[in-house]
Amino acid sequence: MKRIKRHPEGTFRGILNYLKPYRGYIACTVVCAAVYVAATLVIPYLAGLAIDCMAGAGAVDWPRLNALLVAIGVSIALAALSQWLMSLSNNHIAYRVLADIRRDAFHKLGVLPLKYLDGRSYGKTASVIITDAEQFSDGLLLGFTQLFTGAATILGVLIILFVLRWEIALCVLVLTPLSLFLAKFISSHTYSMFKKQAATRAEQTGFIDEMIGNLKVVKAFSHEGENEEQFAEINERLRATSLRAIFYSSITNPGTRLVNNIVYAVVALVGAFLVIATAGAAAPFTVGNLSSVLSYATQYTKPFNEITEVITEFQNALACAARLFALIGEEEQPSDEGNTELVNVRGEVKLSDVSFSYDPEKPLIEHLNVLAPAGKRVAIVGPTGCGKTTLINLLMRFYDVDGGSISVDGHDIREVTRASLRKHYGMVLQETWLKKATVRENLLMGNPSATEEEMIAAARAAHAHGFISRLPEGYDTVIGDEGALSQGQRQLLCIARIMLCRPPMLILDEATSSIDTRTEMRVQDAFSKLMEGRTCFVVAHRLSTIENADLILVMKAGTIIEQGTHKELLEKNGFYAELYKAQFVG
């Protein structure tokens, strides 16, 4: 299904944007609401006429009474049918809109710059797409179910009351501001509270997600008590905000019931006086008429009760919708449509006067110049936080440079498409990622056209074929994040996946950090074969893995302070030599 591109400029405008494709269903809802209201409004009038058919014992107009009872039955059936059709239409609107919003929000995650996700809790982002979307859908469904019928009922009752007796209609109109005031009072107090409740709920979801994802670390450092205290603090804030929001929303029912009773009492009193005053007149106000207007008084006040409930739910829905539209309306990463495709890559990478920082007030990389000739192996070393991984992010264009340029074979990477750039890089990171699928599907992700023999050869080269063969279904075993594989085995699968792609450029960010020394030696040998003729960037903390690199860049505080081969850097007896001695001598 083609995604509808929307640029909501506000919450209401955003909702209307998502409702546009379902104009037909909205029209169906309006028609069904009109039929339902008309059928329910005619029933009290017919009932009043039926009462007037029974003047007393032995004075019953049976033919007319039977006809009225049949008409009442038909009206009830018509009201039930229209209400059922209206519910079907409303359900379709609400859940289709929910699916559209979730699809657009999920699509947005794929086109947002990484700085957006890096600066926010993953749990909060997930809460917006899952919990807030569900809350919004519930409020939207309730609104469509009751808003149309409520408004039509109020208007219809007023018209009928003016036709039956204008005095009673005026009494009802005079008392209407009570309901409007109550609705205004509730809505003005609930929106901000439900918005704060939604934000606190998202914070709690994010904290739970973070704790579950790092439960081993929590237990390793015996941090359960501190986490419980932090959770209790968030939970208390959520309790307090929820209590305030629910308190004001709970005023709806008793408040509207009070207004209902006042309106009913006034109508009953005025109607009774009119029955007495008009007895014997040419156009008397009969007992049947009094019964009808009392029913209409109840019908008139009931929608105010429903609408105030809708307003309460809708305030919560609007608070959730605002967060959803804020995500959907976030600025996307600059489009590379129209950029050239990077083809026939040799692998010469050049960084010219590159400057970059995550925070403008905290410079990280400044005036960096690096030339990686095609087919050469470049190692990047340095203390934590010196900018090694940041450099990798810039090479892959996960972030764009603030100044200077990065080029591949003389092409500025900002002038080529991201997809063609990343297609020519093979990347193995310290953190592994495998989707919930078979081993075969995970290995073929980067090269779906590879043959069975090529896949097995890549697995053998990465020393992964042995443990894959021992899995229950071999290459057809479903894996994921359930812990069926060790971290080292997961890393070997990621390495095999890159070996199967055989890209012209490689990025290895501590790629062998999770495997044992013996296996590491074998994998290093496999990497040596894989890296022949390819430009390689190797980020390493264990300096033994980069001794054969053609060029070693030593970084500190975002700048390259030394560069050369392993032997040359040791002879300089500088910072690299200190790092090396710290690992192998000290």
Quick structural summary:
With 586 residues, this protein is an alpha/beta fold.
Question: What do you see in this structure?
Answer:
The chain has helices at residues 11-19, 23-52, 62-111, 114-118, 122-164, 166-213, 215-220, 224-250, 252-277, 287-328, 388-395, 418-423, 439-443, 452-461, 465-469, 487-501, 517-531, 566-572, 575-584; strands at 349-356, 365-372, 377-381, 403-408, 411-412, 425-428, 437-438, 478-479, 505-509, 535-539, 551-556, 559-564. It is α/β, with parallel strands linked by helices and 586 residues long. The protein has two domains: 11-328, ABC transporter type 1, transmembrane domain (ABC transporter transmembrane region fold), CATH 1.20.1560; 349-584, Rossmann fold (3-Layer(aba) Sandwich), CATH 3.40.50.300. A six-stranded mixed beta sheet has the order 6-9-10-3-11-12, with helices on both faces. A four-stranded antiparallel beta sheet has the order 2-1-4-5, with no helix packed on it. Strands 7-8 form a two-stranded antiparallel ribbon. Helix 5 runs antiparallel to helix 10 (287-328). The longest helix is centred in the N-terminal third of the chain and has 50 residues, at 62-111. Residues 1-9 have low confidence and may be disordered.
